[in-house]
Amino acid sequence: xxDPAATSDDATEGLTILGSTVRHPVDHxxxxxxxxxxxxxxxxxxxxTSMCPVTEQPDLSTVVIEYAPHERCVESKxxxxxxxxxxxAAVFAEQLAxxxxxxxxxxxxxxxxxxxxxxxxxxxxxxxxFARLP
Length: 134
Hints:
Number of strands: 6
Helix content: 25-40%
Low-confidence stretches: none
Number of helices: 3
Shape: globular
Strand order of the largest sheet: 2-3-5-6
Largest sheet: 4 strands, antiparallel
Mean pLDDT: 92
Distance between the termini: 32 Å
């Protein structure tokens, strides 16, 4: 078993959001060292909001992020605040999936990342999009 005291400084180095009072969206993800043996991470958020780029009406989506960590893992509070940044973004669901996958890939350099966006029905049509980066 790993000694928590021996790795706590390394695990929290560079984290500026966790443990701080942050009351605004952020434009990036923070990460920590991936533990040995962690082969896949999945985050699910059922309340991601954005705006239709044409009508500016709100869109509500469920977002599922899966990735295979290499050296870094996404810190979940920064993910929550990052997803919040889309609240006022005028973006189609397809671009939302690509943008999130791109940021996870940039922040963690995983073996792969896949993002699934299921946008709630609007006009009777539910939209599901996927983005995958190697």
